[in-house]
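From: lab user (bench 3)
To: helpdesk
Subject: output format question, protein + MIG

Hello, I'm new to running complex predictions and I'm not sure whether the block I got back is the full result or only part of it. Here's what I submitted:
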Amino acid sequence: MIVNTELEQKGNLFPSEIINYKKDIDTLQFTTKNNVVLQVTVVRDSVIRFRYSTTGKFENDFSYGVTIHASRGYRFLDVTENEKHYIITTSKLICKIEKQSLQVSLFDALDLKLINQDEIGFHWEESYEHGGDIVKMSKTCQKAESYYGLGDKPVDVNLKGKRFENWATDSYAFGKNTDPIYKAIPFYTALHDNKSYGIFFDNTFKTSFDFAHERRNVTSFWAQGGEMNYYFMYGPKMEDVVKNYTDLTGKPHALPPLWALGFHQCKWSYYPEANVKEVTNTFRDLKIPCDAIYLDIDYMDGFRCFTWNKEYFPDPKKMVKELKDDGFKTVVIIDPGIKIDLEYDVFKEGLDKDYFCKRADGPYMKGKVWPGECYFPDYTKPEVRDWWASLFKELIEDIGVKGVWNDMNEPAVMDVPNKSFPDDVRHDYDGNPCSHRKAHNIYGTQMARATYHGLKKYAYPKRPFVITRSAYSGAQRYTSTWMGDNVATWEHLSIANNQAQRMSMSGFSFAGSDIGGFAEQPHGELFARWIQLGIFHAFCRVHSSGDHGDQEPWVFGEEITDIVRKFVELRYQLLPYLYTAFWNYINYGTPILKSLVLYDQEDSSTHYRSDEFIYGEQILVCPIQEPNAKGRRMYIPRGKWYNFWTDELVEGGREMWVDAALESMPIFIKEGAVIPKYPVQQYVGEKKFDDITLDVYYKEGKESSKLYDDAHDGYDYKKGRFSLRTFTVTGKKEELIIQQHKRGDFNAEYNKFQIVFHNLPFSITSIQIDNVEIPIDNVNVGKKQSILIDKEFNELHLIEKQLLN
Ligand code: MIG
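Helpdesk reply: Thanks, we reran it on our side. This is the complete output you should expect:
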């Protein structure tokens, strides 16, 4: 540590009064007497960026977090000043900047109410150790304000009263409240007085957040270096805050192939080939649907990336093909550590081309990981990313691997106390050279990004599939993710539930946990309960460390196998529903999982709920998180909901007991919903079907639902080959109308919808399709009435005709 003791220890420093102001289109610049500059950029009417410099000069404006595709432009912008303030007004926000202190306050432009206000606001401390500043921001915590987001933090949904750090860390067997863990997502959403806003602190150094923990009325965030650079995003609806953040940091570049939304089976490790086949064959024998099988590090030759252990896997291409013929996509792990071995061509090439990270004074960054001593590519250099992408040619194009799993990319290093690179390691940072202190948190994302580009290129015309462990804001553009090395305990089941909700509300919906737990072995009951939760996560994979016993769905006895099958089948039935939610996510940034607070922020009972969540738009789920449960108490949000299993209609806005023995779990459907369902398949694309089911849940009133579809892989959907159907249900006492509106010119293989009516309060006596009366005997009358109808109908009208006599 180099400390210049000659320097004066100044402590916290603060901006003084503004002496200069200038405006350049959407960017305003305020300079204080002590040479602090605040740059305010109006990104959109509801998104304002604040950037501070303490030297009068800004760094090169470069961000890995913000996408070039982010929406920009505002409808209205006006700047005025009075004695005390500069006042910036957009159509959504009013931002006041105090001339004396540079303190900022933000108001709703419509009702003029306060949204957010600096406490001290921006201040800083000079960093004697590293140079530059420790940059700090403090805000007043408003009355009854709550906080959400921040990525993978393993805590309850509401962050109020807690303090966190963002420093991507390999965290084997982390626990509740362990901090930090694998990801660094410096974004949170706040809520008070029915107004929600978000703050994205786009700084890749180690960042910290304090949500009224140290001082009850103050929320603050700070970083160990770099700039105070944050985006303020206004809702007032929380869902719009999350959408704004997702727009800014990016939606996934493409829809996943539909198979990637199927069920995945993984273990450390399945080998040799015969063992892999035994597992996949058992899935088919027992008729448990599954789409993907994973190969962990033992498939490689001495853990050398892009090689195969030929003893375990003598003919990978043949095996991958046979698995494919049986409906399994092969996903393989690729780590960042490249074994130091002059006989190994990837290492040789990386060395020759100077692609590996180096220490500050020149030598290579050497670290021990699975292969032994390794060097590590500097993925923050565009040339290195291109090279890395090119390494996937053989795996993907020739061997036929369909997905790649990036692990250890925090980056993780073994046998060193800080578990990672030393701070002095140098990185290119896309032409903004810096030390590891700045590059650490985005290292994993840049690796996943390079991997994604490799898959995109060599899998073409199919869609790529990547999964990463570490991530910074924006990683969702390239990859899915999992939560790392959890443990087979009931507490971890609830952590997984909270993490998935939190990730989804942090712009990263394609996420899931190691189902059943990575470390230790679950009891059958825990495994079954975890499957029940996992089928409602966009990424659904069983994984375990393998050293505590097996974790395939059938190892816990027949009862558990049957329960697992039942729920995995449900996932496969609901695939069109999930795919539609995914489409909604990549188009609008709508989170696939919604904590109840995001679903209904006006209802203050939701602000501290952690267990229940909305899956997609219309399904309410609440996992059982305790042993021996026959059910549980849960909060049903406002509105009316159908119990999925019994069709019983319940009125929400209250907590209630819901029965859920082991073969069941609390699931509710919003009244008026139209839920699309596929027939059960063993893997995506196994069957061609003539019709799909639409479950219609009667409502007195109106509700609309969507169904998105396309070829389930490839890119034709980007050229208009998709179909987006909107079903509007209008229910009256003796009548039900379903209108369909279709957009896009994709024509699915199936021709008909089997429409199943739930809870119709009348018996059907007359049916009209597109205004033509059809014979009533087309309707199956039973407990559930249903009708088979051409998929291109415009309007279906069911009537109970009162007989006059
Ligand atoms: O040091 O590849 O989180 O999913 O199975 C452990 C072996 C390395 C950690 C990952 C885990 C994976 C394991 N890896």
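A quick orientation on your result: The longest strand covers residues 114-126. Let us know if anything else is unclear.
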